[in-house]
């Protein structure tokens, strides 16, 4: 299993709008070949930080989706959202055990 992790920190008090956008997301990725699930998490000690984990059968499935659909998947981002510079991070993982 391949996992893509994105973290970012909201700079301008729009955390409620971002949470709502994730709750009401259009689920475009859900039907992508190789997609397993998505988790969106907010640390209790920092409500302006968002952690997004997507789980895939393999890295190639993620790459195909990213190349072809990333722009449309971000269409629901609230207008005016600002992120803390330097706090956005994307990392990739291989699940080795549960």
Automatic annotation (TrEMBL):
A Pfam cross-reference name: ABM
Boundaries of every ABM domain copy: 2-92
Alphabetical keyword list: Monooxygenase, Oxidoreductase
Gene3D superfamilies: 3.30.70.100
Domain of life: Bacteria
GO MF term (any one): monooxygenase activity
InterPro entries in alphabetical order: ABM_dom, Dimeric_a/b-barrel
Name by which UniProt lists this protein: Heme-degrading monooxygenase HmoA
Organism: Pontibacter chinhatensis
């Amino acid at each position: 299993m391949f996992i893509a992790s994105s973290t970012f920190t909201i700079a301008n008090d729009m955390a409620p709008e971002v949470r709502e956008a994730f709750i009401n997301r259009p689920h475009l990725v859900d039907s992508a070949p190789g997609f397993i699930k998505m988790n969106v998490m907010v640390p209790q000690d920092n409500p302006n930080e968002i952690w997004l984990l997507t789980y895939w059968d393999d890295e190639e499935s993620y790459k195909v989706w990213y190349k072809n659909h990333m722009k449309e998947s971000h269409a629901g981002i609230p207008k005016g959202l600002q992120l803390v510079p330097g706090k956005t991070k994307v990392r990739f993982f291989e699940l080795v055990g549960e």
